[in-house]
Amino acid sequence: MEATYLVLILCFIAALGQTALALKEEDCEVCIKTVRRFADTLDDATKKDYKLIETEFKKFCKIQKNKEHRFCYYLGGLEESATGILNELSKPLSWSMPADKVCEKLKKKDAQICDLRYEKPIDLKNVDLKKLKVRDLKKILNDWDEGCDGCLEKTDFIRRIEELKPKYSHGEL
Predict the structure, then answer these.
(1) Contact 22, 100 (CB under 8 A)
(2) How is residue 144 annotated by DSSP?
(3) What is the pLDDT along the chain (173 residues), one digit of tens a residue?
(4) Helix, strand, coil percent content, the chain, rounded in steps of 5
(5) Residues 6 or more apart from 132 whose CB is under 8 A from it?
(6) CB atoms within 10 A of CB 23
(7) Contact 66, 6 (CB under 8 A)
(8) Cβ neighbours of 149 (radius 10 Å)
(9) Domains of the chain (ranges plus CATH)?
């Protein structure tokens, strides 16, 4: 009788340990958000076939930027990817596995997948552009898919951002 209770207690502790080890969204934010967004683009027929999922993921990756692009690179969703663990994404998705569980599996294969983090957005309404680094000014323009032809000085980048602010602020100012 005591052995039965001991076994039950050990099983309960093991179950608690598993839930504590579950991947949280903030621990692997780029992976979880990207997998969810990708899975939402799939129709029911595609969701059942892992080969079709892989094909669709490669198409999905062609239009990704920044952290999502890097995520695609790690999985093998880009032509220039050095390695590929795409089946670690496609097969679990074909079984309707949730994004956080898919990312747990991916993390076991390649830990750097969960090292990807989103940068905090720059609040253009309250930031003093003169205090930002040129790198950050370039990032603002890049996020807007805008260039700055002939920009050499920091003031050139600031002027270009000020020009484009009304187009991209959408009532924030």
Answers:
(1) yes
(2) T
(3) 566 655 556 555 655 444 445 667 778 999 999 999 999 999 999 999 999 999 999 999 999 989 999 999 999 999 999 888 999 999 999 999 999 999 999 999 998 999 998 887 788 888 899 999 998 899 899 889 999 999 999 999 999 999 999 988 765 44
(4) 65, 0, 35
(5) 122
(6) 19
(7) no
(8) 6
(9) 25-115 (1.10.225.10), 129-169 (1.10.720)
Residue length, the chain? 173
Q: Tokens at residue 25, please?
A: 């969204």
Q: Tokens for 162? A: 């000020």
- Look at the block and give the residue holding tokens 């309707």: 96
Q: pTM for the full model? A: 0.64
The counts of H helices and E strands in the chain are 9, 0
